[in-house]
Amino acid sequence: MTATGLSGRSVFLVEDEVMIRMMVADMLEELGYKVAAEAGDINEALRLVQATEFDIAILDVNVNGKVISPVADLIREKGCPFIFATGYGSSGLPEQYRDRPALQKPFQLDALGKTIEAALRGG
Q1: Which CATH number does the domain housing residue 64 bear?
Q2: Where does the record place the modification 4-aspartylphosphate (predicted)?
Q3: Given phi > 0 = left and psi -120 to 50 = alpha, else beta, which region is 41?
Q4: Best label site of 27, 48, 50, 105, fewest CB within 10 Å?
């Protein structure tokens, strides 16, 4: 499966679980995206948001027990789309971001691809 017309876009990935981060990175590459940067904690993510160019971000909601909101705030300021990955459902999203797309963990390749495409198209 490839990302229709969106192949080659870059993704910033924030996930504290190393194995999950590696799996999602593999899924992104299979879909035709490239991983611009990966972060496993909030401070690293904040630094990378400012230092990295990317087209979209995938953000774990709970990173080492901390809510991802400061990272989402910076990405919103940059004007980049982002989606959340969560095991808690939409009720687990930060309140100010409950209108953003969210992937329920664990998610499949097809769901990841469709969610990214919709977010990149502004849907």
Answers
A1: 3.40.50.2300
A2: 60
A3: beta
A4: 50
